[in-house]
Amino acid sequence: MKFAVKWNILLVLMVIIMNNNSYAQVILRFQTQITTAANRLGDLIQITNDSQKWANLSLQSRPVAGQLIGQAEIIDWMHQLIGDFNWEWQGKKQTRVRKPHKKSEANALINKAEQALSQRLNQQYSRVEIKALTLPKDSEFLLDSFKVEMDITYPVTKRVCVWLINEQKRIAIWFSVNAYTTVMVANHDLPSHTPLTKESLAVEERNIAGLNDKPAVLTFSKTVWLQNALQKNQIVLENHLTEPASVIHGQPVKVSIILNSPA
Q: Fewer CB atoms inside 10 A, N or C side of the chain?
């Protein structure tokens, strides 16, 4: 008889222990980001000590973008499904549902960078040709989250790096560039230290990407001299020019000699 009583007491204790384990305190908090793709309780909240696998409970409906979800709403819903339980809430008490992030594919990133570069160069050149040299990886961030940065010189370099930047990521995309504009070129070989004339030059559209100085703009309102020799069809640059020489070879000069008379 005593054995039976002890056995019954042991069974009661085991049931109590099992019940306590089943309702051990769980710690709840909102997920860092909740999107309209959520379809389980675990998509809404993090559950610590989730021995009952409550995170796998299916939601009756998916949340709507912009919807505000509060702690009380979550707890009430859980009580309806699983009854009373021991819980503690940590972190913020409400959060807003967002649309899920869409990946930015490599081609979309290239197009964004190329359009920005083309728009910038078209302000300075009559025609541009741009070709992507790098293929970036797809990005987990929205395309609109990236701003475009680039360092453009004039003339533009043959290779240009365009940066796509947001608060968490920087993506470098390189392009080859041909940039055309109207310039003056030598009609024939021109020696250094000689004056330039309209007859010695022609006007043409040329690719100036990669030149080491700006193309010269000549009005011939005053005499301009070449500092360096030019080959036929070579573009005239600003650093090719110099001020006229004080004395030209063969030019007659007048020399005045002043002698100091003795005291």
A: C
How many angstroms separate the Cα of 135 from the Cα of each of 15, 113, 131, 147? Answer: 63, 12, 11, 18
Against a cut of 0.70, is the pTM above it?
A: no
For the CA atoms of 45, 51, 56, 57, the dihedral, rounded to the nearest 10 degrees, stands at -80
Indicate the CATH number for domain 181-242. Answer: 3.90.1210.10
Structure tokens at 115: 């359009």
Residue intervals in the chain for CATH 3.90.1210.10 = 181-242
What's domain 2-96's architecture?
Sandwich (2.60)
